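Now for today's protein.

===
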Amino acid sequence: MSQDAGLFIVLAFAVLAANLPFLFDRIFFIVRPASGHKGFFWRLLELFVLYLGIGVLTRVLERQAHGSAYPQSWEFYVTTLSLFVVFAFPGFVYRYLWHGVRRRVGAART
């Protein structure tokens, strides 16, 4: 596998991981909340934990591919976190804009 293919696989995993908190109603995909639905704070916390997980995965892959990981400063991490939040936009739209509108329209019809 070439490094370009590996890059696209990591990006695909990042997009998938960024959208997972908005697709499932269990806290960290295990615990069902007492109220029946997960709050926005839990979704943000899961998003940050998944960002850290993808970051660790990419550091390990970089270390394997190049022998050592290149040092990064805070600007790199702020940029990648912003990109991860942008990757989460489809899940956010589905959960809060599209899925929520469908529920309200269904409730208005009954």
Q: What stands out?
A: The chain has a mean pLDDT of 88. The CA atoms of residues 17 and 50 lie 6 Å apart. Residues 3-109 form one domain. The radius of gyration is 17 Å.
